[in-house]
Amino acid sequence: MDDFSPSDLKAILHSKRANLYCLEHCRVLVNGGRVEYVTDAGQRQLYWNIPIANTTSLLLGTGTSVTQAAMRELAKAGVLVGFCGGGGTPLFSAGEVDVDVAWRTPQSEYRPTEYLQHWVRFWFDDALRLAAAKAFQRARLRRIATQWLRSKALKDAGFAIDAAALEAALAASLRAIDAAPDNTFLLTEEARLSKQLFRLAAQATQYGAFTRAQRGQGADPANRFLDHGNYLAYGLGATATWVLGLPHGLAVLHGKTRRGGLVCSTWPTW
């Protein structure tokens, strides 16, 4: 088998790659020239191939290890590698691997800057940044309408939402978003709509009285599930902005004073 060069492996752009792996309780190594992860099954060891040329990110969770040889091959393929907790969250550390350097930050001088350049063209203009925040919120409304009303999985699970009430709430929120004069108004509208959505979801599942608790303070299953879901959504948002090379501090709506603000802005659209 002929050796592949790094340019051959990077022929599939990150935006076109199909795979993102989150591995737990296994070892990542090179076996017969291929990057594989190994799990134990009783007295046997099972080897599973990782198609690195078509992989965007590799998240290593609880109980994982990776060899230097595997990191070298992942570097050749341009795979982004990070360490995380159980279930893929939270993301502890991540970076772009290179052939001669173990870790690089997402702002590496070798990372393409196309998306960042387009982002900063509008970010320093208050009016354009507000328009971007509205675009995120509109995308959120479209995603909610699609998932809550048309998802077969939710219907099969018995999630019978009041379609008329949901459509009315989303329509009212869309009008408020279009008329929003600033980010504070948008954040207030987001909170108002969220309370309506929580109420509709509680009614659809016959959950009973529900109050959204602050993160980590909810003892009931619904609040714990929402906390975990938020972390998963933040992980997806972080991965997307990270692959595109967008610094997390360039937020358009949430958390403009903290580094991860952009992740908070993007997660409602997932």
Question: In brief, what are we looking at here?
Answer:
This protein has 270 residues and is of the alpha/beta class. It is built from nine helices and eight strands.
How is the main sheet built?
4 strands, mixed
Query: What is the residue-averaged pLDDT?
Result: 82
Terminal-residue CA separation: 41 Å
Rg, rounded, reads 21 Å
Quaternary organisation: single chain
Read across the widest sheet, the strand sequence of neighbours is 1-5-7-8
Shape: globular
Helix count equals: 9
Structural class call reads alpha/beta
Helix residue percentage: 40-55%
Query: What is the chain-wise order of helices and strands?
Result: HEEEEEEHEEHHHHHHH
Give the beta-strand count. 8
Enumerate the spans where pLDDT stays under 50 for 5 or more consecutive residues. Answer: 97-109
Strand residues, percent: 15-25%
Topology:
Blueprint: H1 6-9, E1 19-23, E2 26-31, E3 34-41, E4 44-49, E5 55-60, E6 64-66, H2 68-77, E7 80-84, E8 91-96, H3 114-123, H4 126-150, H5 152-156, H6 163-179, H7 183-205, H8 221-244, H9 261-266
Parallel strand pairs: 1-5, 2-6, 5-7
Antiparallel strand pairs: 2-3, 3-4, 7-8
Helix pairs in contact: 4-6, 6-7
Please, could you describe this protein's structure?
By secondary structure, this protein is α/β, with parallel strands linked by helices. Helix content is 46%, strand content 17%. The chain has 9 helices and 8 strands. The chain has helices at 6-9, 68-77, 114-123, 126-150, 152-156, 163-179, 183-205, 221-244, 261-266; strands spanning 19-23, 26-31, 34-41, 44-49, 55-60, 64-66, 80-84, 91-96. The strands form 2 sheets. It has a 4-stranded mixed beta sheet, with helices on both faces. A 4-stranded mixed beta sheet has the order 4-3-2-6. Helix 4 packs antiparallel against helix 6 and helix 6 runs antiparallel to helix 7. The two termini are 41 Å apart. Residues 97-109 have low confidence and may be disordered.
